[in-house]
Amino acid sequence: MSLTAKLLLGMLLCCFPLQVLAWDWHTKVTLSLKDQTLLVACQLLEKNYGIHFSYSRDVVDLSHRITLEVRNKPLKKVLELLFEPYDISSSRIGNQVVLTMKNKPLRTISGYVEDARNGEKLIGATVYCPAQRAGTVTNQYGFYSITLKKDTSSLYTSYIGYTPQRYKLPATGNRQIVMALQPTNSLQEIVVTENMKAHLQEQTQMSKVNIPVTEIEAVPRLLGEADVMRTLQSLPGVTAGADGSGGMSVRGGSPDQNLILLDGTPVFNSEHVFGIFSVFNPDIIKNADLYKGAFPARYGGRLSSIIDISMKDGDMKNYHGEVSISTIAAKFMVEGPLWKNKTSFILSARRSYIDLLMDGAIKSGMDLGENGDFFAFFYDANARINHIFSPKDRLYLSAYGGEDALIISQDHDYETTDAPDQRRYQEKSSFKLGWGNLTGTLRWNHVFNQRLFSNVTFNYSQYFFLTHYHYNFQSYTIDEHSQLYGRYTSRIQNAVGKIDFDYRPRPGHAIKFGVASTTHIFKPGTFFFEDDSATPSLPDTSYNNFNTVGVDMVLYGEDDWQLTPDLHLNAGLHAAGFLVEKRFYRSVQPRLGLRYLLPKSWALKAAYTHMYQPIHLLTNNGTNLPTDLWVPSTPKVKPMLSKQITIGVAKTTEDHQYEFSLEGYYKTMDNVIEYTEDASMFNSAGKKWDDQVIIGKGRSYGTEVLLEKKQGSTKGWLGYTLAWSDRQFAEVNNGKRFPYKYDARHNLELTVIHQFNKNWEISAGWQFSTGKPLTLPVASYEGIQEPSPYDPQQPLPPRADELGARNQFRTSNIHRLDLSITYTKKKRLWTKSWNLSLYNAYNQQNPFYYYVKSDPVAKERYLAQKTILPILPSIAYSIKF
Amino acid sequence: MRFIIVYAIGLVMLLTACDKKARLDLPYEGDKIVLNTFMLADSVAYIRVTRSEPVVSSNDPEFPELTNAQVTILENGLPFSAVHRQVINGRGYFVSDSVIRPGKIYTVTAAVTGLTAVTATDSIPAQPEVNGLFAQKTASQISFTLKDPGNVINYYRIHIYAADSTDGAIRPLSRIKYRLDPSFNNNFADIISDAYYEDLVVKDERISGKSIVFVLQTSLPVTYKYMIAEVVGLTEPGYRYLKSLDDQQDNQEEGNFLAQPVKVYSNVANGYGIVAGMYAKRITCKVKE
What pTM was computed for the model? Predict the structure, then answer.
């Protein structure tokens, strides 16, 4: 080596840190990483300390993000901190650190998460292993299963409203562990600081909203009744019917496209009093989930949404109850063990009582006669029994019944001899109008092993509409009498048998699969008449007295698959076949969801789903009514099919205080139906009902933003929706698209719940919606009644109005503020609670409908707006024991 | 069934509902010719030609007549009869010089300078077969028999008149309000709502091909000497027009909260109104003492 070369080498060596030449496991290392990948960590070590890493990119994944701050720590320790959580082992070969994957055996921990006080199973509770950054949530039966490495020492479990709990695990082996959580005193709610709860960015599921029952009870009430469906209507993407009425639309779908499940059993009509209240008594509700899109493969049969409501199991340890009375209804709930820690029951019922209070006034006001009667009420009742046969087997038996009814009977004795009346006869009539649901569910949970859970369900559901009259007439002066009876009923019945499996074969896979069969029995409107009069007119007869039976068969499977640490795929398939009147309709519906973890703990989510609905609801173009008829698909009216694509971002803040989601969606719907314009007086669906409907397409798209504050003494949410929804029928508006009746461009909902102390809680909800479409007349013209101007008693010619294009106009904007204050006082043996609510606090006169009104006094015609729910204060009182 | 629901919801709304003038502007579609005639067999045709107006107006029941309209009638596609304008009871009509004949098809056209000409066609239906009108003094029921032909869909309109006899002829005095057994028209609510009508239209879906005794319950006991039942055969356009017009009137007069906008049927091309054939059958009886 020449002198020049030696000098150059000496200068070069001076420029390098000494560590390059010599590092070992004890070399002191300083490293600072903030949400950076392992690859960056390796690059820094190589750059600063000359440590070269060798690994196979196909085997060793260095994309995991990590936050680490170490100062002058031995290299061996630092590498352990970096790689141990990801099962990456490091060894020195020559001057390199070689990275390989550890091959460790697995273990599975499974069991139930429950309320420690009463054994109530908790749905959607998080079970999490921070060391391995792996977690799962309990299914709708409170069951979980998580597969982990053997050296896991503990698991954490958490659930909103409960104190998070850490469970130490035995050293080895699969285990079945029941995790019992204590409810938190809401004033001392623990702020979860560790990664003990699944963040939104850690859930592949999107377009899903969970409503805790505490929030249902905390938000302002209408007439004192807490209501799950009203609470759902204050979420983005959900549009309610006209002020105070039901008919919920989700992402531009029609109300019949919502599948409402109570303990897995479909409820066909979820409304009391034409939608002002829902049929679900909040006292027995444990959990409510709303899916607006990204439908899991296990759900099907409706196009637009799934509302999955679970009833409480009943207290396994102690007897409890609740009695309450509100402005409109009284109710009770009682629960307790039939056999402690083995069998529990829960029973609840409620009935409106306004008709009883106003009995005298109504009777005299309606001139019902001396023995006349009037009842107008709704009631519902729920019962459930839950039995634990063994740690592996549980049985649930539940039933629901509810009805809205109007009963009027009249009894008149006319003995008038003065002109012009001169009535001398007896007239008696009775009339009943009612509708309601009956459901029954039997479910058997079985745990095959730590990784395989099954649920077998048999359920029955019926929706009925019924009206009948008796009429008796007897003259006092001549031989003249009438005895008439008439009845109209419509009904749909469902019987379901299904088995669902939940299988966790290994980390990174959560598989659900199952098979189901549903038998539908349709009776869309049957009339029956009897006439036992002196001069009978029609013979005793019935019309449309037939049933149509359809069988729906479903096979589904889905896997929530962790492709890489940052990328999850939920891939599912829902195959369905519908057999009706020797016709068979089949569909294969892909259900795909994707989640990719972005920097700063944001998740990018996307989903694509097909949904299929073989049954239709015949309803008029205005309001959904109890008289609406369920009918099966026909050769002309094929099953409805929707395709929806959703994309969005989501994040839960590190302190779990806030959740944020932003989603955009585009949905198409085929084979949607509407009545033809002159078929609005439809009474029953005969064999040829499909001649009276038109078939078209629907489309909806929009953006939804939801910001929720989930913890602390102040909770609530802010939702905003920007959406479009339209329909297209060849026969309407010359085949051009027109806005769907639920199309509201902007929706804004703000709900705030604040707990001052252990006694006082207030809540407020403000909703704003831009006007909804409506059809109005655009011209007026003379009508005609009689052929000849010489006919006697010639009336003035009627005035007819020509309707404009369908849904061409918009109602005025709709907004209102609801307020509520609740006072709760805990006594030694019971807790009493007062709730004062103010619905529509600033008395905004929102439109329920519009009509053209003629004012003969002012001699003018104008468009009038009817409001049905002005400011409505209400009070509710309850005692819990 | 809708009436029942209206009745039930009405009870709910009694407590809270209120209405006010809406702050919405209703645009006007523009002037159009309105052509109205019910062409009654064996009678001349009385044709009203008027002009449409904006919906929001002074509520004047009289619409502007188009007195200078050119009205023509074709029978089975051939020129039928001249028309002349005549004012009857204060209103102007274009009256045909010849009587309308059963079984024929008529096309009526009206043209006015400055407006689009309108035209409409309909046929004359068969005359209903009715007989056996019976009524008894102080009774609240009257009856007659209708024989419905079974091979076609038939539509009927029923009027009941109190009558008197002058010069041996029985002439109507006034219309009587009545109601039908709900088995004919499903109006269950009539039973409890004390609803009676001067005029009902029915379709023969329940009675097709049968001979049926219609028993009508009157709002007041029968106190007259004579009675007349008039059963008018309607064509489908006539039935659809009367039914939809009645439905729309219900909505407007009662403020129907179901908010189902009802489109009044029209068979008039380029305009509004109805041209429909009718064939009436009147039967009479002396009320039994």
Answer: 0.82
